Prior knowledge:
The chain has 565 residues and is α+β, with helices and mostly antiparallel strands.
Amino acid sequence: MYTVHSSTPRRAKPGFVWLTLILVFGLLLGACAAPAAAPAPAAEAPASDAPAAAEVTAAPATEELTRANTLIFAADATDLISLDPAVAYEFGGIQVVGSVYETLVSFEPGQPGVKPLLAESWDIEETDEGATIIFHLNPAAVFASGNPVTAQDVAFSWARAIDLNKSPAFLFTDVAGLTKESFSAVDDSTFHVNLPATISPPVFLSVISFSLAAVVEQAVVEANMGDDMASTWMNDNSAGSGPYVLNAWERSAQVVLDANPNYWGTPPAMKRVIMQNIPELANLQAAIETGDADIVQDLGPEQAATLEGNPDVNLIQVTDTLLAYVGMNATKPPLDNPDVREAIRYAVNYDDIATLLKGNGKIVQEIIPEGFLGYTGVQPFNQDVDKAKELLAKAGVAEGTEIDFMVPTGTGPGGLEWGILGAKIQADLALVGLTVNIQQLQTSELLNIYRAQGGELTLMNWGPDFPDPDGNATPFANWDAKSLAWRNDWKDATAIDLSKQAAQAGSTEERIALYAELVDYVQHNGPYVMLYQPIRTFGLRSNITGFTFDPSDTPGITFANIGKK
């Protein structure tokens, strides 16, 4: 048995400028202080084994909201679908969830391994069946209501995520090998998890740092269950223990977060965070130039070049673990033929894509990003029009065959507009005789279609949920996980078996060899055109302090660490 302990918790366009100012100051004038979260009901005991909610602690007085203590963050947030931690599986939603809810363990930017958060320590005991992890909750941890975070809340939250069975649920059921019988609350402060022998405890700890494993307050959620286990309610309310509470989600416009007056850790310096949805690159540039935004995400190369040397703006570039790719539905003709999928990979001009990125990304043609165990760096494809035509002829595909191509609106990773990248791929495929019909959709709408296996060609990006190669290998290769392979309807026994073997291998050397075999197999048989790994460019006003971006951590950007000088 071994134990992990912690003694303390860690913690443009004309008119656009005026529109933003009116919006921001309207929000600031609309409230003098951040509202406290709704208290948990105490009149009736919940139906489960959870104890009745404790008496709510009075919220401390909060200072008046001003522009100085309000952080305005602007990015393309058209992917927002849900703010429920058991449902959210989009970058915008995960950013909100990571600011409002907390997990048992987390990552610290730049530090290896997981760190205690809601759990102040844990013991790992080897068993004949696998391993048991015993989590000891931090007694200081409380929800925004003021009620303590209990092991019953953890068990309820995880069971609810499994029951809802939405997009991220495979991380519990397939990657971590959990069922609802795998975990239990021993008492208010002790939580047990039994892992099968096929699951490595370190990998499991990484998995539960993801937003899916966030803890919600059972009594509050149960009081608002409805027909969807409170998912709709949680899009406009929050029930977490994080440094912020949800004030409002104004669809397609912005999310407003207020400092949690009952936060059990170090209070955030910013009393309000406004996450604005600004998909247009020119408007992102205008927002950071004028100071209408304090931080902007994913500036394009042209915008970054224009801002270079501006004394009021700092530019920060970070290599992300995202991968941009084209998904190909493996059951829809002509994409059901492996030769056609290989032809499309040979039709794409990767050098041109690198030129479009202007240094904001690197061509990567595999399912594991650079920087992860298992990355090979092998690039088997260059544009070869003759080879692509030969493969299409072998497959019996007539010239002029039409394929629908879903492309998101807004800006893709690396500051490259999705529409430009989609048009480039459309032009490349036209050279080999394929007629590609672009359907440009808001990301949230596109994802709903894609997740229902409704796409033919789909342009999208993927980021690993935890910093292990299995965070990509299982979604890309294992149809049973109901993730990327499932969305592209590619059920391949070899890929599934290799992904499982690599995840369960006992030594690093064995894992590396198996991932190399899996990467090569998916490159030539899978339903993907892997394109590039981006460099993200953030613009920060010069008075911003405490900014970090860590793609391995759930929120990516920890708003609670950010201040102004």
